[in-house]
Amino acid sequence: MIDLEPVVEPRVAPGDMALATQQIRRCVGPSEFAARFEDLIVDGSAALNRTHRPGHLTGSAFVVSADRTRCLMMFHTKLQRWLQPGGHADGDGNLANVALREASEETGIDGLQVFEPAIDLDVHEVDPPAEDSHLHFDVRFLVLALPDVVLVGNHESEALRWVAFDDLAELGVDDGLLRMVRVSRGALRQLR
């Protein structure tokens, strides 16, 4: 059973690796990357900064529609592929807050609700043209949208689209995103 709780008052936790570590260790999803996360967090708050190499912490939001039948995907401008909203911690040790902040900025949606604990951990390589190749240690959270939201987007996305869970594979998303969908669907069945 997955017991998720809404985060009532997200707060910025500058440099708080204790909170980030707790959020990582409480993740309810598969743990294939747990050992790699443990190796990273030994570096302390440096792992919260985007300049840390070989990689750094990021927070992602698996944004689900109010009717719980679709998820929000964005076509990322730099990476040129469909992804969930998310981004760099930039020093914030509250990774749930990072996921919520990034989802709000990248989609323009107000009133999103983030849930803890995290639903997935993922490590993936990023090699955008303007940066050196590095790893994102992504902590992923379930986020619910209110009914009738308006998608606005920003410069980081070329397109935003609600997609039925079963249609995600058609967008060419990676296995990590499909794994996150499986965990999310189980969690959604248990939310009231």
Summarize the structure.
The protein has helices spanning 17-25, 34-41, 95-107, 175-190; strands at residues 5-6, 55-64, 70-76, 82-83, 86-88, 113-116, 120-126, 134-144, 157-164. It has 192 residues and is an alpha+beta fold.
Kindly describe this structure.
- Strands 1, 2, 5, 6, 7 and 8 form a six-stranded mixed β-sheet that branches. A three-stranded antiparallel β-sheet has the order 4-3-9, with no helix packed on it.
- With 192 residues, it is of the alpha+beta class.
- The chain has four helices and nine strands; from the N terminus they run βααββββαββββα.
- The protein has helices spanning 17-25, 34-41, 95-107, 175-190, and strands at residues 5-6, 55-64, 70-76, 82-83, 86-88, 113-116, 120-126, 134-144, 157-164.
- The protein has a single domain (5-190), classed as Nucleoside Triphosphate Pyrophosphohydrolase (Alpha-Beta Complex), CATH 3.90.79.10.
- The protein is 24% helix and 28% strand.
- The two termini are 14 Å apart.
What is the succession of H and E elements? EHHEEEEHEEEEH
**Strands, total number:** 9
CATH architecture descriptor: Alpha-Beta Complex
CATH superfamily: Nucleoside Triphosphate Pyrophosphohydrolase
Radius of gyration: 15 Å
Which regions are unreliable across 5 or more consecutive residues at pLDDT < 50? none
Q: How many helical stretches? A: 4
Q: Approximately how much beta-strand content do the residues carry?
A: 25-35%
DSSP helix fraction: 10-25%
Could you tell me the CATH topology label.
Nucleoside Triphosphate Pyrophosphohydrolase
